[in-house]
Amino acid sequence: MNHDHLPALKRYTSQVQYDALKTIEETKSIKALVFSGNSNRTLGVLVRSAWINTFPYVDDGVKYEGWCVTEAGKHAMALFEAQLKIEAVKKEKAQEYVDKYAKLLIAEYEMELKNRPEIERLALVSQKLVDELAEVRRERARAEYGMNGYDKHRGIDIACKHYADKGIHIRVRT
Length: 174
Description:
The chain is mainly alpha-helical. It has two domains: 3-82, Winged helix-like DNA-binding domain superfamily/Winged helix DNA-binding domain (Arc Repressor Mutant, subunit A), CATH 1.10.10.10; 88-149. It has six helices and two strands. It has helices spanning 6-12, 15-27, 31-36, 39-48, 71-144, 149-164; strands at 52-59, 62-69. A two-stranded antiparallel sheet has the order 1-2. The longest helix is centred in the middle third of the chain and has 74 residues, at 71-144.
């Protein structure tokens, strides 16, 4: 095979040309392509690329000329088949990602459906605790409003001693 045909191979090989080459290789004729109606461009490319050529043969004593796929054409077919395999692997890999993504979406939605009531309940409990803490802080702030610094520190000492007796050391924010 002559590698002069490779630039055409890399740039112009298509599914239509591959199918045409397979048809010619199987039938040793271009009749099926000519009668299909869309063959002008395809046959022109195959002949210009030297991927098909004529060959003489004798049938019942009559000399005929048939068509065959050249070595360059067979090479073009092999490279296109390799490209098809690569694309199939890429599609398969992409499909794996899509399937995994869809599976995770389903799992996420099912988990959310299953846990939504508990999440909402815990959110209400959490909000209730936050509100209660805020209320206690407001009450503490109201209680210390009229106090002097000495009385405030005595209250802090009492609170710290209360927790120190339990083995807990606290820091009081004022």
